[in-house]
Amino acid sequence: MSNPLDDRVALVTGAGRGIGRAIALRLARDGAAVVVNDLDEEVAAETVAAVERAGGRAAVATGSVADPVVTDAMVGVAEGEFGALDIVVNNAGLTRDAMLHRMTDETWDLVVDVTLRGTFNVCRSAARLLRSKDADHNRKVVNISSINGVHGVAANANYSAAKAGVIGLTKALAREWAPLRINVNAVAPGFIEGTRLTAVRGEGDDLGIPPDTLDRIVSQIPIGRPGQPEDVAGLVAWLSSPESDYVTGQVVEIHGGLEIVKLV
Hints:
globular; 264 residues
């Protein structure tokens, strides 16, 4: 049996850990060759090795998505190693939480530059390959937003604003690229294990949330558990597949029924 993504080439940013790594592994399992981006070359190489152990094809493209020179180079890796680019998953992002009156310019700029500008940079760099008129199949862009960007979260204005911007970018680009057979959608995860949002303060991460706060939030999730990176990866894989060719400009929330997060 053929796999749904056979002969496709994907670029996944922030794929060294967590959700990004799960997405890279799932797309590879479904047949795609994967360009793995991360700021940390070591963890990117670990993801590539995991793909190859499972019988897939992958290549490393390190660097920050906030730098358009780097994002041009990522696309060059896809073209040079695999000869094409069919799927882009913009997962790279970071958080630096603070109440608004205590948030510095540097903290605001860092989060927005990586999370929103980075998504823009990757899409712009990828445009020259994605917009090919010779392709006989739909190309796919999946942007990872957050329920923070949909609903907003206190002490999280920079990240919430950046992720809301990702949604606006997604909707605009979906309209712009639909005539070219390019589907552009966003996924908005909630509390997913192994991410900054579920990091517990006192377990090696000073930026984590207090354990009692995490327990309270998890208790409010109707499904009764935090999500797993593989939950998000499964949705991204579907949005990257031919089965979603008639879906574009959508924001799919994946949070077990939890819509509003109260951290403070």
